[in-house]
């Protein structure tokens, strides 16, 4: 009997023929004509018409497409089957591009879902990527700056032409900073470049998204005893809670702050992805996921980080046992004690910093969760951890460490650690005034002129 493919996300196909492990052709079950389709190419279900009812010709065109695809998976392999490839809608092409991404995929998906698709698909209805030009990119920038801006009544401010999306939208964000736009920019640029490789711009120049001019926004490390003050205040704040819900949230914040300080992981993204399966308390390692900013890496745990993670796990296990719930290593690490997610840790962190009443900085810098990562790096370098090792642990480069972490700050931190007995400077020498001269007299029976005949005296100047 002919094979049937009935995938839930598309029409049913019948007469599926496997030409090789990477190549399937088939006919649609819901069509009267017997048109053949390129059903699967590699790992992707492409479902492109081969424009023929002749099975031999269909096989020939499928193999032509397969050879072109092997030469360049992003090239013009669809031309081999006579398929019109230039008219791709924005949403479909963005999703296709996203499927090719491995690193930081969730962040890119969020940018596409929250901003790019609502504008290019929802507002502009782009069904042909070739219709996007520099003017439309400029209009998107204006929309991105203004649509999500909160007004006094906590509703989104709606620029002209955005009524449709505004009616559907229930969530909003503050006006994005230049640095935020610059972080989002590569996602749109790469989608446009992907569309160009697929021939969507038909030889025209690819629209350009300019880089925003941003003001320096230093995110300082917690120097000296500032982190101790932050951690102590977090503990006190937990003790002041008058309900379980509030106590769980503040305890989660205290744990989040502590683990980030002693591991250098990125907040919130790397921490949000951690599961207990990624935490090895026996070997004292954290496995950072592949789909993060710099990909998979192993982060060593010192005793302070390992002890806190063990306490977090024990609390979660005890709560699950008391309530006859199951605990799984697939659970996220940074969740509430009852297993629920809590996504306002950034806001809670800002409240904690306000409680500490740190003096205002002359450079205008303000503490953020990312300051904990800077704190880890500053103290690690002050404790004489090599730059290579710090960079490997943090998932960054030695070049970045050298440009960001100044020698004066590191030396200041080292003096703080020495003065508080947190590190030693090695074997101490006696003061110079207590030194005594050391005289060494060599044997007299050495050959004349041998330097060892001379008396050697080592003494202070």
% residues in beta strands: 5-15%
Number of helical regions = 15
SSE ordering: EEEEEHHHHHHHHHEEEHHHHHHEE
Largest sheet entry: 5 strands, antiparallel
Which structural class fits the helix and strand makeup? alpha+beta
Main-sheet strand order equals 1-2-3-4-5
For the secondary structure, the number of strands is 10
What is the percent of helical residues? 40-55%
Name the average pLDDT.
82
**Low-confidence segments, ≥5 residues, pLDDT <50?**
149-172
- Report the end-to-end length measured between terminal Cα atoms: 101 Å
Which shape, going by the Cα principal axes? elongated
The oligomerization state is single chain
Computed Rg: 31 Å
Short description:
By secondary structure, this protein is α+β, with helices and mostly antiparallel strands. Helix content is 43%, strand content 9%.
Characterization of this structure:
The chain is of the alpha+beta class. It has 15 helices and 10 strands. The chain has helices at residues 55-71, 90-98, 105-123, 134-147, 163-168, 178-197, 226-239, 244-263, 269-273, 303-322, 345-356, 370-382, 387-394, 398-404, 407-419; strands at 4-5, 13-20, 23-28, 36-41, 48-49, 279-280, 285-288, 297-300, 438-441, 455-458. The strands form 3 sheets. It has a 5-stranded antiparallel β-sheet, covered by helices on one side. Strands 6-7-8 form a 3-stranded antiparallel β-sheet. The protein has a two-stranded antiparallel ribbon with strand order 9-10. A hairpin with an 8-residue loop joins β7 (285-288) and β8. α7 (226-239) packs across α11 (345-356). It is elongated and about 90 Å long.
